């Protein structure tokens, strides 16, 4: 939830701010230096290729990070809540080993996610460097009559500024899209997971005055904590008669 509550709003704010500045610079460039507008379109097209190339890897590693983080946090919460029971049965070592295993799995996914972002960032940096280099070499190779020093300086300034802005916008777009994996996981919990039965089922309500006597019957009952986990109670059958006192151990 921290991604959607804290990081995503910050990234979105930066994305729209830098995107707005990029649009403003584009308008200024189109008015003052129209030929650079064509170069700007080429710059955006060049940045789009590594963006699409890295999109799948970043999204997939982020999905793995989310999937491996949930069991880790669940195990941590369970260990804290049941710490007294764990100590009573001397199971500290077992829970520590399980925590280390879950943490290692999450660390691998988180490392891959960070490396995917770093790979994309390095490609964006390399493209920016090449664009600025070409912008610097091209005016220097032209005769002085074709381009003035002031236009050369202006083109270099805009090349550096626009490349930095486009790079920032693309990087924030990649990170924001990765953050949406958290939203997708939340929607999965809301829409796809089966909910528990309602607290009261109208067509199965007991008669008025129930129970008439304190009698409980279990017949071949099987219980598990949730779907997919092993059974904790298997074929349990017993009867508690009215006014009978019993003790449950375990």
UniProtKB/TrEMBL annotation:
rRNA-binding among keywords: no
Keywords of the record: ATP-binding, Membrane, Nucleotide-binding, Transmembrane, Transmembrane helix, Transport
Gene3D superfamilies in UniProt: ABC transporter type 1, transmembrane domain, P-loop containing nucleotide triphosphate hydrolases
Parts of the chain that traverse the membrane: 20-49, 126-142
Domain of life: Eukaryota
PROSITE patterns linked to this entry: ABC_TM1F
GO terms under cellular component: membrane
Annotated InterPro entries: ABC1_TM_dom, ABC1_TM_sf, ABC_transporter_C-like, P-loop_NTPase
Keyword Transmembrane helix: yes
Domain ABC transmembrane type-1: 4-178
GO molecular function, one term: ATP binding
Protein name: ABCC5
Organism: Bugula neritina (Brown bryozoan)
């Amino acid at each position: 939830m921290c991604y959607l509550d804290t990081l995503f709003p910050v990234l979105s704010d930066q994305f729209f701010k830098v995107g707005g500045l990029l649009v403003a610079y584009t308008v200024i460039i189109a008015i003052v230096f129209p030929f650079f507008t064509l170069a700007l379109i080429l710059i955006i097209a060049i940045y789009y290729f590594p963006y699409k190339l890295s999109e799948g890897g970043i999204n997939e590693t982020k999905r793995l990070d989310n999937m491996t983080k949930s069991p880790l946090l669940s195990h941590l919460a369970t260990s804290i809540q049941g710490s007294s029971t764990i100590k009573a049965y001397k199971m500290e070592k077992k829970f520590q080993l399980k925590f280390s295993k879950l943490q290692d799995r999450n660390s691998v996914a988180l490392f891959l996610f960070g490396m995917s972002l770093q790979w994309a960032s390095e490609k964006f940096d390399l493209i920016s460097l090449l664009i600025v280099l070409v912008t610097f070499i091209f005016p220097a190779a032209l005769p002085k009559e074709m381009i003035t020093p002031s236009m050369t300086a202006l083109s270099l300034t805009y090349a550096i500024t626009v490349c930095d802005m486009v790079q920032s916008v693309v990087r924030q777009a990649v990170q924001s899209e990765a953050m949406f994996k958290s939203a997708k996981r939340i929607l999965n919990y809301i829409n796809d997971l089966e909910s528990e039965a309602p607290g009261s089922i109208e067509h199965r309500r007991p008669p008025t005055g129930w129970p008439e006597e304190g009698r409980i019957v279990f017949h071949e009952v099987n219980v598990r904590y949730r779907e997919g986990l092993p059974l904790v109670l298997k074929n349990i059958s017993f009867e508690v008669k009215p006014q009978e006192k019993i003790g449950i151990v375990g």
